[in-house]
Amino acid sequence: MSESPITETDVAAFDRDGAVCLRHAFDPRWLDRIAEGIDKELAAPGNGLVEQQAAGLPGRFVTDYCAAQRTPEFQDFIVNSGAAEIVATLMRSTAAHFLMDVLWIKQPGTAKPTAWHQDQPYFCIDGRQMCSIWLPIDPVPRDVALRFLRGSHRWGRWFRPRLTSGRELYTFGADEKPWEAIPDFDAELDKYDVLQWGLEPGDCLVFHALAVHGAPGNPQPSRHRRVLTTVWFGDDATYGVRPSPPRPHFEGHGLKPGDPMRSPYFPQIWPRPAGEIAGHRFSADTALRITI
Known about the structure:
Elements: H1 8-17, E1 19-22, H2 28-43, E2 49-51, E3 61-65, H3 72-80, H4 83-91, E4 96-106, E5 114-117, E6 125-126, E7 130-136, E8 147-149, E9 158-159, E10 179-180, E11 194-196, E12 204-208, E13 213-215, E14 225-233, E15 238-239, E16 249-251, E17 268-270, E18 289-291
Parallel strand pairs: 9-10
Antiparallel strand pairs: 1-12, 2-3, 3-4, 4-14, 4-17, 5-13, 6-15, 7-12, 7-14, 8-11, 8-13, 16-18
C-alpha cells in the first residue's frame, strides 16, 4: 500500500472531483527505480517514443508509450509497489488491472503545453472504472503540474481525441455520436473550477479516465519535469470499439468488442491471483504488440 494510506476522504474526492492528490504515496526507492528506467529508455527507446514538438524549439517534449514492456524498473514498480491497490481503492473496485504506461518528459525551457483532453476516448476500454496515476520524479511547481476541470468525468461527454499536430486521431462520420469536438477551454477557463497541485517527489495525482485535463509547458530554467503515468482499470471494464484504431493500438490479446478485459496481456496486479504471476504480461512469450 502507499506510504500514506488512502482514506475515505480521498475516495470521496476522487469520485466527486475526478482527480485527487495523494501526498507521500511512494517512497524514494520507487522514484529511484523509475529514474533508472527513464535513463535507460531515453538512451535506447522503443517504437513508442514520440517527439511532441518541432525540432529547433527550446527544450524537448517527448512521450513514450508502453516502455514497461522492455524496462524492468517500470515492471518492478507496476507489479510490486502499492500502485494497484491505490487505484482499486479509489475506483471502489475489487481488483486492479494494468493497461499501459506513458512517459511524459518536458526538459527545462519547454514552452509547448499538453492540450486539454480526456484519456478514455484514446483507449480501447469502456466502463466507468478506469484511471491513471501521474507520478513525477522531480519536484513540480503548481503552475507546471497537470490540471483538471473539476467534475468533468461526470459530464457524460466524450471529446474527440487529437494528436499533438492538432489532427483528430480517429476518422469520424458526420455528426458521429457520442463524439464532440473539444471546446477551447483556455478561452473560457474562468467558467470552470480548475484543480491543480504542486507536488514533491513521492506525491502523485490519480484521475478518472474521463476527467478533462492538460498541462502547461515547463518554463523552469534548469529543472526537468519527468513523469511516469500508469493506466489502470477495474471490474466493469470491457473491450471498447472506437471509430478507427486507437493509439496505442494493441494487437494479439484475443479480445472482441464487449468482452470483459480479461487477458494475460492486461494482467490483474491487485490482489495478486493465487498461483499466477502478476507480471505475466511482461514475459517474453506474451509481449504485447503495439502500433503508435
